[in-house]
Amino acid sequence: MGPCGESTRRTDLRLFGGRVRDTLPVYANINRATTVRTPAGFAETAKAAVTDGFGAVKGAPFDGFPPAGSSPAAIEAALENGIACVAAMREAVGPNVEVMVDCHSFFDVAMAERVARRLEPLNLAWYEEPVAPERIEETREIRRRIKQPMAAGEILYGVAGFATLSRNRVVNVIMPDVKHCGGLLELTRIAAAAEQDGVLVAPHNPSGPVSTAANVQVCAVLRNFRLLEFQWGEVGWRSDVVTPVEFFDRGTLRVPSRPGFGIDLNEGLVRSHLM
């Protein structure tokens, strides 16, 4: 991915403003790995991720939420199951591991507030997208009503797209996705604008090792970086997709010194899984 050499290594991150950290804290997105969508299932995968070295985990236990117009009984059952799953995650990992919940925009304002209040004792690191992030006024109202930090923005594009979330701290954390927000350089601009508003950045990254490597390059230069998402436990062959393999040390990824994204792609393996 480019010629090696000390001058090249220095230049790579200078293009984005200069490295400010050598390691990045990451959190395990356990959602796809949780095939048993019950409190016990979420607890098992959360505990396994922590055993694997992660100090933060996130699930989306409200996936499959009943559509609008469903019976009150079906909605209540889904709410109770989701809340119980988050509680089970917290119990499984203990009080010192960060727990986040992604609501995937299934709620309205009243329901978002109700669920958030039920989750308050679990000390969430953040409460993610109870409504769609482009619904700014509703997001702002939820933020006003609840105590948990809020995160949002995985589908938004460009500095202008994120400005409405960052301005007046509508959320505490924005989540630009390097694949959708406009690319690596635009992500640095989005983060710089958010820093002026006192908002942190935790890139959305439920993706493979190439996306993760790209995010590492950007996050290394962000002064308001919070955490990087890591898609944990989805497939057993992930670690063979790139060289060198993704290396974790106590829940962190090291910023590579190699040029480019710092990886080489195992194209043969990738092709074998596309067939």
Brief description of this entry?
By secondary structure, the chain is an alpha/beta fold. It has a single domain (21-274), classed as Alpha-Beta Barrel (TIM Barrel), CATH 3.20.20.
SSE map:
Elements lengths: L5 H9 L8 E7 L9 H13 L4 E4 L12 H22 L4 E5 L6 H11 L6 E3 L7 H10 L4 E3 L5 H9 L6 E2 L9 H13 L3 E2 L7 H11 L8 E4 L10 E2 L8 E3 L9 E2 L1 H8 L1
Tell me what the structure shows.
This protein has 275 residues and is of the alpha/beta class. The protein has one domain: TIM Barrel (Alpha-Beta Barrel). The protein is 39% helix and 13% strand. Strands 1, 2, 3, 4, 5, 6, 7, 8 and 10 form a nine-stranded mixed sheet that branches. Strands 9-11 form a two-stranded antiparallel ribbon. Helix 2 runs parallel beside helix 3 (72-93), helix 6 (158-166) packs parallel to helix 7 and helix 7 crosses helix 8. Mean pLDDT is 91; it is low at 1-11.
For the termini, the CA-CA separation is 25 Å
The fold-level CATH name is: TIM Barrel
Uncertain segments: 1-11
Per DSSP E runs of 2 or more residues, the count of β-strands stands at: 11
What is the count of structural domains?
A: 1
Going by CATH, the architecture would be Alpha-Beta Barrel
Question: Biggest sheet, open or closed, and with what strands and sense?
Answer: 9 strands, mixed
Please work out how many helical segments DSSP would assign.
9
Shape: globular
- Bin the helical content: 25-40%
- Written as H for each helix and E for each strand, in order along the chain, the element string is HEHEHEHEHEHEHEHEEEEH
Which homologous superfamily in CATH is the superfamily? Enolase-like C-terminal domain
